[in-house]
Amino acid sequence: MAITRKPATAKTDPVDIDALISKGGSAPKQQRESETTPVIIRLPSELLAAVDAAVAGRPIRIPRHTWILEAIHEKLSKTG
């Protein structure tokens, strides 16, 4: 069995790494149909429990957030 030397590792210049880190980058932009605004909503625990029960009662599972958006849309559609 022949013994060979360990392959030499390529040395990187720390200046190049520092330049890359300093350059930084940007977060990917998400394409949205319309702009959204975050809203904090405070609900009584009984009302939230009723919402969760309604969400759980659907034949196809959806997030609570989606259910609330649908409920707001339905209410606004009825009021004109």
Polypeptide structure, described:
The protein has helices at residues 14-23, 45-56, 64-79. It has 80 residues and is mainly α. It is elongated. The chain starts with 13 loop residues before the first helix and ends with a helix.
Main traits of this protein?
single chain; 80 residues; mainly alpha; 48% helix
Helix content: 40-55%
Biggest sheet layout: none
Give the SSE string.
HHH
Number of strands: 0
- Unreliable stretches covering 5 or more consecutive residues: none
Shape: elongated
Strand content: under 5%
Q: For the record, give the distance between the C-alpha atoms at the N and C termini, rounded to a whole number.
A: 86 Å
Q: What would the average pLDDT be, to the nearest integer? A: 86
Determine Rg (CA atoms, Å): 28 Å
Given the structure, what is the number of helices? 3
Structural class: mainly alpha
Summarize the structure.
The chain is an all-alpha fold. It has helices spanning 14-23, 45-56, 64-79.
